[in-house]
Amino acid sequence: MKVATSFSGKPDSVKTADFVAIVSDPGSRDVIGNLLRDQGLSNAHLQLGTFEDTIRLLQQVERSPKQLIVDVSHLTMPLSDLTRLSQVCEPSIKVVAIGDKNDVGLFRNLLRIGVQDYLVKPLTVDLLRRSLASNEPVLQVRTGKVLSFIGARGGVGVTTIAVCLARHLSSETRRRIAYVDLNLNGGAAGAQLGISSNNGLTELLQLPRRPDASFIDRALVTKTDRLFLLSAELPYGTDPSPRAGAVGELVDALKQDFHYILLDVPRVAGRVTEEALDASNFVYLVSDRSVHAARECARLIRLTQELAGERVTSVLLNNPLEPVDGRVEPADFEQVFGRTIAHELPYAPKALALAENLGEPIGTARDGGFLSQVAALARDITGEGAPAATRWYARLTRRWG
User: 4-aspartylphosphate-modified residues are where (predicted)?
Assistant: First the structure.
C-alpha cells in the first residue's frame, strides 16, 4: 500500500489503484490505513489532502478507482463540489463521503446524487469496513448519458459532427466517451478517428446475453485514455442479425463506465436504429438546408415521439454544401418543426476534408467557426453553458452525467 502525505504529478500508486482515499486529518488517515492493512489491500492510495487535491488527482489518472473516500469536512457547498467531482470520475465508481457534520438532510441529498454512504468523523475501522462492504443500491444509480446522432439524409455530416463532439468531450472536458458506430457494414467513424475497426461491435451484438465488462473491454478500440470506439466493417451483403434487445443491453452496460455514449445511428429504419433511439437520453437529428431533409427531419421527430420513454430531440442544421440562393432558410425549418434549431454549423470544406482524410482533429485556421459550434453543443450537453445557479441544478438532476 502506498501512503502519501502530499500529492504532485501522477504517482504510480494511483495509475492502477482500485481504492483511493484523500482525507484532511491525520486521525482519519490512520484509521483508513489500519483498515487497508487489516484487509491486505495493496492496490490502494491513501494521503492527506484537500477536496481539490482529489479532483486534480482524478483528472490525471487513466481509469477511476473502484472505490473512493472523499473528505467534505471543509466544504461550504458539498453537493455542488461532489457534482464537480463526478465530472472527472467514471459513473460506476463507489464514493463514500466523510465529514464532521451529523446532518440527516445532507446524508439524504448525498445519497440522491449517487454517493454510496456518508460517515461522520471520528471514523472507526468497523464503521468503514461495513460501509465499504455494503452492496445496497443507492437511491439513484449514477449512469452515463446516451446521445444519438442520425441524419435526415445521406451526406449531411452526422459522423463528422459526432466525432468532433466526442473529441471535444474527451479532451476538453475530460469525460470518458464511448463512440458506437452502428453502421455495421462500415461506418466512417474509425477513419475519422484514425483507427481501425476490430469488428468487436458485431461480436457484442451477437452474444446470447448481456455483455459483461471483460467482453466490452476486449471489443473497444482505444483512441485516447478517454475516447474509445466500438465499430464493425462487415462485408457488403452480410446481415449481422443482432439479437433482439442487444443494442439496448450494450448501451446499459456502457452507461456504467462512461460519462457519455455517442451512438452514430444508421438512417435506414430497422431494429438497430429503433433500439438505439429508444435507449437514448438525447437525439440529435442532423439536416442540411434542403426540402427533402426538412421533410425527413419531421418524420424522424414523429418517430422519436412515438417511442416509449422520454428523450430530448433536437435539430442540428449543417452546411456541408457551398451556400447558394434557393436553400431552405433556418426560419423555415423552425416553422416546419415547431421548434428552434439547436445549432447551425458553418460551411468549412477545407478544414473538414483535411481532418477526415488524415484522421486528425479539425484545425481552427479555416474551420469557419465549426469548432465553436461543437463546443457550444458540448456546453449544452454538460450544462456548463448555463448560469451558475441553473448549472448546479442541471448537474444534480442529471445524476452525475
Answer: 71
Q: Which of 52, 40, 57, 55 is nearest to 4 (CA)?
A: 57
DSSP H helical ranges for 40-77: 51-60
Distance (Å, rounded) from C-alpha 106 to C-alpha 176?
28
Residue with cell 502506498: 2
Rounded-to-integer distance, Cα 366 and Cα 252, Å: 39
Whether the Cβ atoms of residue 318 and residue 348 lie closer than 8 Å to each other: no
Cell of 367: 474551420
Nearest CA to 122 among 29, 48, 35, 39? 29
CATH 3.40.50.2300 applies to domain 19-133? yes
Polymer length in residues for the chain: 401
Report the mean per-residue pLDDT for the chain: 85
Phi, psi dihedrals of residue 256, rounded to the nearest 5°: -75, -20
Give start-end residues of each CATH 3.40.50.2300 domain in the chain: 19-133
* CATH 3.40.50.300 is held by the domain 145-386: yes
pLDDT, tens digit (0-9, with 9 covering 90-100), for 338-371: 667 889 999 998 999 999 889 999 988 788 899 9
For residues 147 and 166, the answer to whether their CB atoms sit within 8 Å is no
Which residue spans of the chain are classified as CATH 3.40.50.300? Answer: 145-386
> Residue 274 carries which side chain, given as an amino acid letter?
E
pLDDT tens by residue, 375-401: 999 999 988 754 443 343 344 334 334
The whole-number average pLDDT for the span 127-140 is 72
Determine the pLDDT at residue 136. Answer: 60
